[in-house]
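Reposting from the mailing list since nobody answered there.

I have sequence plus structure tokens for a pair of proteins and want to know whether others read the tokens the same way I do. The first protein:
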Amino acid sequence: MVRKQYSMCSKIYLRKYNYFTLLFIMQIAFSNISFCQQQSYKPFNIDFNREAALFGAGAVAAVTAYAILENLKPMSVEDINLLSPSNINEFDRNAIGPYTEDHLGDALLYTSYLVPLSVVFFDATRKDIWEVALMYSEVLLIQSSINGIVKGTVQRVRPFVYDEQSPINVKQTKDARVSFFSGHTSMTAALSFFTARVASEYVSNNTIRILIWSSAALLPAITAVSRVNTHWHFPTDVMTGYVIGALIGYFIPELHTTTTSMSGNLSIYPSVNLNKPSLNFQLQF
């Protein structure tokens, strides 16, 4: 019982303090922007003003998320006893059940952190390591911060709290109040779709592209099912997390894309001139 309580506390501890780790990682990549801009044409463009805006917004969001989660209070026994499954909509109600460790969901989450690092094994992507590292850091920072803010603001109780068989000490943790939306699902989706979007710039074979995108869609889907089956999340938690994570993972690289196709001569890249955003086109003959 003590081990389970420690596990629950450690998870929310890591979630809060992970924001500052992400800020540190992003600053390392951010310090190499000048190096990236001096290289020859690459599929991803690093623009100082855009990265500063993303980094600044992400930093503010990270601090906000940390403050909200830090002030989150566990539920009292009286509050827990007042909970009723009848107050949960029918679509989500079936997720209610006893507390169970989600080993599969945890394993898939930790695996998703490593998937984007596969770019270092290929020559075509290794030359763009700093661009990919910066975008990877932005995905981690923005996804974690948004998830933390929403979790701490909504304070939705996890499904296992409604079950009488779940240990009371597990119910009385901060982590028991942050069901919406699923951090495991959203982070797995963000990193999977990020990897697929980046890889698409270097892969011309359609069959391989289909396999990459299929895998990217499948990994967070399995994570979502595992989170629901182990009573950590309601279906609406994981569905929302999947969509938000996928959008962040896809559009961060998309925002940095410099060309409309791998083989085309048309380059499209955003920039900021006189504090006004613009879209630049370059046609090479």
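The second protein, same order (residues first, tokens after):
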Amino acid sequence: MPGHIEKDRSWFWKIGSLVAILIIVYLFSDPISVFVKNHKWELLLTYVGLMLFISWVFSNWFQYHIENLRRSWYFLFIIGIAMFLGEKGFEESQWAIFGMLVSMFIFVDLAIFLTPMISKIAGAEFVPKGVQHMERTNKNMKLAIEKTQSKSQVFTTFVSRVLPDQFGTTIWESSVEYRDSLELFMEPYAQECHQRIAVLSIPDLDTFIRELGSSLGIQLNEEQKTTISNGEFLEISKQMNFIPFHKPNLYPVVIVVMTDKDVIHQIDVSNILNIAMIHSWYHATEDKEATVEETR
């Protein structure tokens, strides 16, 4: 349901923007037409310069939208030809001028939009843009797979060091004691993955918000507070995730995962939840608590 609402909102804004543009064009059609006629070459040069700038500074965005940008360029070409014919009319003797205009637009299209797609010019071979994008995607996927395999190995090593004979032998007298124990238990995994983990108690939302601000200096907006209050996973950024964890008979906590060198992957969230679950197995059940107390 939320996804449909977001899509509806997206279409609403798109249609609203289109309607607003049409209204502005209708109300100011004459001054807009005069301005475009008087500055047509400046507008074209501005567009070309802007595309060149974007292709350098925002290359990923440029590659993703390149087809739409090309369509916009040829739309400007059609509008320009229509305006030129409206001003000068068509004379067969001016075919050279029209040929020059067409050649100019095609040259800019080749220079700005299609240069990486040309595979061979005068014996010099180029890698097509589609292949470049695919290679970059494959490289990113390979890195993600390597990260996943590496962290799976870290988790496997961590589990192999767990001592099952100590399960059900620990009693945490307070939320602070449990929180500190869980944080210490997770530390080896965090160090291996170049992450930092902070475990915060969440007896209630207000207390958690205060502790979050005082210990980590983080402020949450209302939507984020609601997410945490509902016990749901919260991604603050690619370098910071909040993972609520609460098991019956244990104190509720929020595990804050942070990293500076990498991003937090989905496998990190799964591994950390599994580690928290393993840690909970050390908790003494009711029938064992009396035995633990007697041995103290």
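Reply #1 (J.P.):
I read it the same way you do. The chain has twelve helices and six strands.
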